Amino acid sequence: MSAACLALLTGCATTSAPTAPVAEAPPVAPEPAVPPVASAKPTPAEAKAFADEAETKLADLNEYAQHVQWMGATFINYDTEWLQTRADAALNEAQVSLALQAAKYNDVDVDAVTRRKLLLLRVSQVLPAADKPGAAADLAAVNTRLGSTYSTGKFTWNGKVYNLDEASRTMAASRDPKVTRAMWEGWMSIAAPMKGDYAKLAQLSNAGAEGLGFKDTGALWRSGYDMAPDAFATETDRLWSQVAPFYKNLHCYTRRKLNEKYGDSVQPKFGPIRADLLGNMWAQDWSNIYDVVAPKGIKSSYSLDKLLVQKKYDPIKMVKTGESFYTSLGFAALPQTFWERSQFTRPKDREVVCHASAWDVDNLSDVRIKMCTNVNGEDFYTVHHELGHNFYQRAYKDQPFLFKNSANDGFHEAIGDFVGLSSVTPTYLNQIGLLDKVPDESEDIPYLLKMALQKVAFLPFGIEVDRWRWEVFSGKITEAQYNQRWWELVGKYQGLSAPAVRPSNAFDPGAKYHVAASVPYTRYFLAAILQFQFQRAACDQAGWKGPLARCSIYGERAVGEKLNAMLEMGQSKPWPDALEAFTGQRDMDATAILDYFAPLNAWLEEQNKGQTCGWEGSI
Ligand code: X8Z
Ligand code: ZN
User: Fold this and answer.
1) Quick one: where's region Disordered (predicted)?
2) Residue 386: active-site member
3) How do strand 273-274 and strand 496-497 relate by DSSP bridges?
């Protein structure tokens, strides 16, 4: 499988064990292709022995696959692709076989730990292959091809060749709509050849999911949250409806600023925002166009981008700084091997997967990150994000293999983001000598606006990617409708439109890493909500009394201890137990992100007075 994200290894944190925890009740009657049990009902001791053996076998295959994946992700070529496909297929076959066998013990009265392991075995895969010869190899080949097409994607404009880094940098900096459109259309064009393969991937993994007793691959993905799959979909709707009005306010304000800058012919006053004007290829983070939306008359005295350059930070110094935040909370320093084996910058001489990821290669102490770090505020934040994965992995290293994962996949994504919230506060930047003077309250709105361009702008994107994939997997949309439906969803959730009519062969969802690499995306939506819950709880624990956005937990050992108590649980318990251990709450709750941004939301409502906000189909 492609990149750092193979089936057993979830997401961009290559966590060792299968994905998130599961409902106590199987999602759908899971009796399908399970061979009949030879003797009478198996005993609890046999069930336990099976789970333990399965665990040992998977841990071994997983470690092997991780080494192969690492080689592939840091050196894409014919041979590493071959090896990845081979290792991936072997792992997939073993997982499918063990998942089918695990179902034999459904009715056996086993202890709670074994019960959870059996359930995890059954919902562990992102892309299961059908249980027949050649199916896993076919799926792995398609998947590797999709990942490589993405990671080696390039296009030519005005005689210059662009890869994703270069196109992204140009798009972020340019205020010429012809240039932003060229970057955007150029990058989207790399995905057109993926469409057929994507349809094949959906068909192959659906066959596997059905064999395991799930309606389709999407239902399998939704079953990892300690609740029924349909209840989970409803839960994400609930969270989205809590935050959608705030997003709409930010959209309204930003659209007006873009209209003022570019005029009606480029950005009309009403309707969707043109997707290439927001400074990011997928318009999932608008912070690069802060200068366009900056409030008039309220100054912002520093830019983290500039401070990092002025103070001569390089990628290693950024990572060392990130590490020292975690050690200030009481976590042990990263091992020497982390520094020896990680990839911190894009190598000049070979193709690599540049999309940032964190790894736990031996499921014990061989943790690494893989980034193509640029010295800027965005990557400073990403460093903290990736290290969050690594510190989580180390915290649960003493759990049995099947529990070596986050409470649910949103937790894995949320930890580093939560720490990142402190790491970009002026309070902290001042403490570590990056910023000479902490700005006064008059800069709170500019600060919150910058954060919202990153965090609030992300929310609809975080939800829509998997809304689209769920429809692909369920068969609601066919290959011919892939792109049109993508834009319907982008229009509905983000309120954006393409700069021009899309070509008939376009496959724009494939121009997003997580689609090409089959990394489930709802995790990031959950993380966007959870990280603020963690922040609110942590700042309460630290006795913080000021505005939540100014709170830094740097050096707060007691917070670190409590955080560790949650992290070291891994996925041994349903996620509400883990959430409760750190925050005292058992539900995901968007009131924390709303609390954090409350002063900005009030300010936006003021700015938007008299404006017609929203767009067709918006909430
Ligand atoms: O993929 C990532 C991380 C690696 S897990 C860099 N993120 C999502 C994305 O880039 O789309 C972090 C934010 C959302
Ligand atoms: Zn991540």
Assistant:
1) 19-41
2) yes
3) parallel
